[in-house]
Fold this protein.
Amino acid sequence: MALAKEIMGSRLIFERSSLASSSSPFQSRLSIKKRTQRTQFSINPFDPRPMRAAVSGSVVAAISEDLVKTLRISTVGRNQEKKEKEEEEKAVKFKVRAVATVRNKNKQDFKETLVKHLDAFTDKIGRNVVLELISTQVDPKTNEPKKSKAAVLKDWSKKSNSKAEKVHYTAEFTVDSAFGSPGAITVTNKHQKEFFLESITIEGFACGPVHFPCNSWVQSQKDHPSKRIFFTNQPYLPSETPSGLRTLREKELENLRGNGEGERKLSDRIYDYDVYNDIGNPDISPELARPTFGGREFPYPRRCRTGRSSTDTDLMSERRVEKPLPMYVPRDEQFEESKQDTFAACRLKAVLHNLIPSLKASILAEDFANFGEIDSLYKEGLLLKLGIQDDMFKKFPLPKIVTTLQKSSEGLLRYDTPKIVSKDKYAWLRDDEFARQAIAGINPVNIERVTAYPPVSNLDPEIYGSDLHSALTEDHIIGHLDGLSVQQAVETNRLFMVDYHDIYLPFLDRINALDGRKAYATRTIFFLTRLGTLKPIAIELSLPPQSGPNRKSKRVVTPPVDATSNWTWQLAKAHVGSNDAGVHQLVNHWLRTHACLEPFILAAHRQLSALHPIFKLLDPHMRYTLEINAVARQTLVSADGVIESCFTAGQYGLEISAAAYKNRWRFDMEGLPADLIRRGMAVPDPTQPHGLKLLVEDYPYANDGLLLWSAIQTWVRTYVERYYPNPNLIRTDTELQAWYSESINVGHADHRDAEWWPELSTVDDLVSVITTIVWLASAQHAALNFGQYPYGGYVPNRPPLMRRLIPDESDPEFAKRTYELNQNQIINRRPLNLTAAVPFRLSLFSLFSGSPGSVNSDVTRCSELIRVPSLVEGCDYKHWLVLMKSPKGYPPRNDIVRGFIKTLAMALGRVHEPLTYKIRSLPDVKWVLPDSFIVDGDSGYGGEPFIDGEVVPYDEKYHADWLRDQTDDDAKNRVFKKKPRRKRKKKLN
Ligand SMILES: [Fe+2]
């Protein structure tokens, strides 16, 4: 009403109010009707029943000041009176006013601006925007819906220069009192240019304002001759559709379904199905040919049909559209301007972190030399060579804001510091963080309870060989079970696992044959400690048996006992992280929350009218998915796209996704409770509000997720029960049944015969189906999407691409790598630069080239450390090594010691706080790590030689250089900028 006042002027509103409150008999009748009709047009979606009454309602009176000039009361006979009354009512004309809200575009190119001005000009001469009101009633004479006379949107030309985000236009209709309630409005755009119509509100009917939510692009009549149809915001089940709207309801759905032919124009609004036959680009190169996904060989959900012509080299493949050209999605599915910018910026961030290795390799033809270089991405940024930068910008068109930033900063590409390293730089190396991410990280949906140990593969031995049994034994884990036997641990729900064996194994031969890509099929076993936290206790790394005579096809890595096994363990965790990153992106995120929803969305637009209450419920949850999926086909999952380039699985990534769809995806298991029960993470518990008891009590994804699931379910149930008071209405709802049936039989055609599809015949069925879809599109997607940069932005935390397998000690490569390490990779041998030795080159995978040592953090408890008998004498696991930055220059030893003591003294005396936290926060301290990492054979404590398994106390024999420094004044004053001048402890190399 406020809006109406602003636009229509308060005078008119006031006059209407006066009229409505008049005491004349006729006006009293109008007042009664007005009150009645107000309820009929309630915008409360829970209030369908009054509207049903409106369907059978009769005349809706008007309240215009133009009303009733011809009203007379006849005193002749009853029939005559009736006839005259009809004629009188026919003769009653009144005006109502429409307020159309049109959203302006912020940015327009030259052509658009030109056309806009042209439209403003031609609008005055009749090429304008025309509205027509349609009643809910049918005219008994013509059997057609009653219509108003056409009305034109006024002042288009005058307002064409408005810079406001929204512009309101008015139009005035003349209707007669027999018109009934408005149920639809048609819009004809005679301009050249489309416009975005947000809503129309009609003022002037006795029922109060009538709202038409439009939120749609209205195309020019020259491109789309038929009138656009918009319905009021009042939902109707199909069987309850007012007679005046029935034909329109069907017609609009026909428009949206299209005829399945021809190439789609960007301005179309047609929703149709197709298979994924546009992933490859065989015309460019045979290497870029990709199979069709969707069909018997590679089952897949269907995508939105675009109807492009086939490629020259493969008639079954559709020609690609490359960025920056847009891929077709129905016009209203395209991003709004604001969303476009936000999405592009977010996509950039999510995508760029995966490009780090290839960018770096392109620029410097080598991998990162150390963690410091990775850190510099967040501090200084990466200066790209101009050519590389241009290439990248071509491949991944960036939003303007970033392009500007690039230009203004001469190609400096800087990343936000990912959350995983912003507070604790080495958290990602710790086992407790590794376990925490399995239940609260970006992929918390693969962990499952171990029900049988060792785990069993479900792969077909006839296809994948008989040697599918696990290499895990009781010996591998028995020492980590708090005194329980393995059987007891299983029976008391203390063993869990993340099992990627069956997902990856069928593809490993092909993946590992790719240049610079190596993967295992991993299984990680976790133990639930008495504290209620998980800790990883074994990682099984499997390869296909035929991977070579010298290569063991299975290997189990357990938590470290020394420096060498520490890095083997870290590398095994990195391979797990890589498996996890692939499954997260290709299966859980892309397949389950994007691709699998697309058929439900297509079917909803094709089969559920905008008038349908379930469409209104689903609509906000379906927004933008088609557009995002189209962009994904174009740049993410496409041949040579981001996923192929940056994930270990390379070109086989979508095949992994298709296999997961075929073998694992079940719609009835996509809801959170069902999924938790299937994975053994929860059991039914009627005493809980959500009906489940979690077996890992502190499982943040599930703790939070169940609250959200319950809230969604409650909302959906309340809504559904209002519209379907009895199940018969569900069974006989033609649109609802057509939607569900088409989603299954066409959209998920490769699973159409599956027995697990839920029925759709009761309220519970419908609540379950809708809750699952809403859950997947909202909370589940959020859980799998929004942590991508916080966790994946720091690539070492979950490297998407691994370059090398892990050599074991029997492998000749192990000795080679160890030799290389000893020659090149033990860094900073300066006194008191206390580094743990790195057992072999860390360029085993590209992202980990050279590094400082490991760290177990201050939160590691002494009792949890692995105790090794061969440690430095005096090591009692209650002390910590403190690693400090190298002192500037090359000061004498005593100065270094004094500096070290001074630093430690800053923390000592305040032991009421966790000491290691304190020490680590001190200036120049790099790490604090338990001294259990110092073992025989390693460089050990830089300050004292490590000879024959023992730290040698100060001895002239080993400290000649120090003695020299102590007596040589020149040496004291000398500044060494780069290399230490001593090569000490060669014996250890
Ligand atoms: Fe997403």
